[in-house]
Amino acid sequence: MYKKKIDMSRLPKHIAFIMDGNGRWAQARGQQRSYGHIAGADTLEATLRCATKLGIPYVTFYAFSTENWNRPQSEVNTLLDLMLKHLEENIFMNNDVKFLLIGDLENMPDNLRNASIQLMDKTKNNKAITMAVAFNYSSRWELAYVTRQIADEVKRGELNINDISAETIDSHMATRTMPNPDLLIRTGGEQRLSNFLLWQTAYSELYFTDTYWPDFDDECLYKAIVDYQGRQRRFGKTGEQVSEENK
Fold first, then answer.
1. Residue 187 lies in a domain
2. pLDDT at position 86, please?
3. Domain range holding 101?
4. Annotated catalytic residue: which of 20, 136, 180, 182?
5. Number of domains in the chain
6. pLDDT, tens digit, 9 for 90 and up, residues 153-212
7. Which of 68, 95, 126, 195 is catalytic?
8. Is residue 33 one of the residues assigned to a domain?
């Protein structure tokens, strides 16, 4: 129903997803939370395929935050196992997907870090879509990391402190090879960013849905895109200015 309403000439270039509600989806079915994460991994793959078919160039999925290490160990183990399993599958090469991992690689299990680095290298020339997975990621970690990098360049005399700008920060972010998200979708009913891409989403359109992530299907994505296309993106300008520019 919603797919027919999409204006294919005005698709978002980058969609970011906060995949929330896996545990609650499982508990509502009398299952362990881990069961929801397994179902959610299938939804991620289906969403990636749908975005690829639509022609969305970039997608980013928030898979595991730096705070998620505080969850029950059994749930953490399931998330780590799922990540490793899906890094080994052929979905990336078979669908011409370029894989990026954004997050704190240094404080990540060795097997997961090595598998991620290998997959990024293997898929670096793929062109259909770029899929970034935020794992062991938080915006506060990223901003602190970028600040240290810039400070070190100033200390070494490679950068003048007066030349630091928003563009300088952009060029050091984990997402520097991608445009900032046009649309951020959060499932599961919560309406917050949860420490995800805080710098990059300064002008993103935010879309919140009560649908739990395992139930987020193609039709849900189409609906979110239609909603996005119904908004006027002003970037600080007036509505009249934007309308005039779009004539």
1. yes
2. 81
3. 9-138+182-229
4. 20
5. 1
6. 999 999 999 999 999 999 999 999 999 999 999 999 999 999 999 999 999 999 999 999
7. 68
8. yes
Q: For residue 76, tell me if it sits in a domain.
A: yes
CATH classification of the domain holding 27: 3.40.1180.10
Q: 90 lies in a domain? A: yes
Active site residue 20: yes
Q: Is position 68 annotated as part of the catalytic site? A: yes
pLDDT digits (tens, 9 = 90+) for 91-129: 888 889 999 999 998 888 899 999 999 999 999 999 999
Name residue, tokens 């100033």. 154
Model pTM score: 0.91
